[in-house]
Amino acid sequence: MSSFISRLLKSPFASKRLVSQLTQRGEGKLGAVLRQLGLKRVLGVFGVKEGAGTRAISTTPVLKKELTDDMELATGIFKRELMLRQAGCNDPWAMKRPMKRGAGRENDPTVIPSAFDGRLVGCLCLGDRAPKWMWLEKGNPKRCECGHYYVLKNVPAI
């Protein structure tokens, strides 16, 4: 290391290669030696900053916050659905599986739940590929083309 310093002191103009070799080898010890010898001006000419190797690290404390819960942000039907899921009802809309037909006779019709006065019902009649759709109103049972009876049952809204 002293050979580099002696070459630097002897030369009237230090080369970029010599300065880069001096600064790459260890800014801590070599930088201190260069500062003691008064070679700060040489480092500054070649674009090497005086305190380049001793940059301070600044940290700020970060508060660990949690994301807000869905229940705090939810409103309306979505909030009621979340409340039902927390209570243990994983299928509040009864959409996981289709309803199966009951006996379907006039005195024992298939009961269709609804929170409204009417509901659209599709009947999969035997031998048909597509369902037959009908509008089921509150009141008397309604008969499908295949002879199956349906009745609307009033249930509370979610």
Describe this structure in words.
The chain has 158 residues and is α+β, with helices and mostly antiparallel strands. The chain has a domain of 45 residues: Cytochrome c oxidase, subunit Vb (Cytochrome C Oxidase, Chain F, Sandwich), CATH 2.60.11. 32% of the residues lie in helices and 16% in strands. It contains six helices and five strands; from the N terminus they run H-H-H-H-H-H-E-E-E-E-E. The strands form two sheets. It has a three-stranded mixed β-sheet, with no helix packed on it. Strands 2-3 form a two-stranded antiparallel sheet. It is rod-shaped, with a radius of gyration of 42 Å. The model has no long low-confidence stretch (mean pLDDT 75). It is an enzyme of class 1 (oxidoreductase). One of its GO terms (cellular component) is respiratory chain complex IV. Its EC number is 1.9.3.1. InterPro entries: Cyt_c_oxidase_su5b (IPR002124), Cyt_c_oxidase_su5b_sf (IPR036972). Keywords: Metal-binding, Oxidoreductase, Zinc.
